[in-house]
Amino acid sequence: VRLAQSLQLIDGLVAAGELGAPLLVAGDLNYEAGELGERVLREGLGLRTIFSDVVRDGMFYRGGSQLRVDVRSASKALTEPVDLGNGARTPLSDHPALVIDLELAAGAPNEPQGRTLEATAPAVDREIEDELTLTRTQRGGALAVLVLGFVAASRALRRTRRPRVWALALLPVAVYAVYFALGYGLAHEQAMEQARANLYKLRGQPAP
What we know:
Blueprint: H1 2-15, E1 23-31, H2 36-45, E2 48-49, E3 56-62, E4 67-77, E5 82-83, E6 89-90, E7 97-106, H3 121-159, H4 163-202
Antiparallel strand pairs: 1-3, 2-3, 4-7, 5-6
Helix pairs in contact: 1-2, 1-4, 3-4
């Protein structure tokens, strides 16, 4: 999901024609250190990281075609434990506040204005394909469970004296199978298909 979000963000900025402007990307992105989604975002937009030791919360920047972005200061807040009044001491948040002071200055940009994902594209393509294969397999399994469960339940209900008990016991399984096969699993498969389309679009290649 994070990989798909990175590709979607890059595609959105490219479509909006924002690659020539200075750029700051910040938020609770949930990246792990060095994971593929983060590397794709940084490569695709030519971003530098401000806090290399912080995971999950991302803060990246890049200069524009005519303006440079300089980091004057960068610090963290809300990291020290505080007394809660009940004898416990804990930080106020499990995410440190990231405080930065940026300055726009005339001059060459800090980084090239977007790239074609040459370094990460093969790994991205493999991960998307693996995720699609897994999701399709799981959806097929959920549909198989639903069909076989319906057949088994129909036979069992005809033979048991407590059909309501059987129906109530099998209902959660059926609901989850339908939800995964036609809801979450289908949406996830469509999101990964869109991620692959975004990847080929960014590289200027036709989707397979």
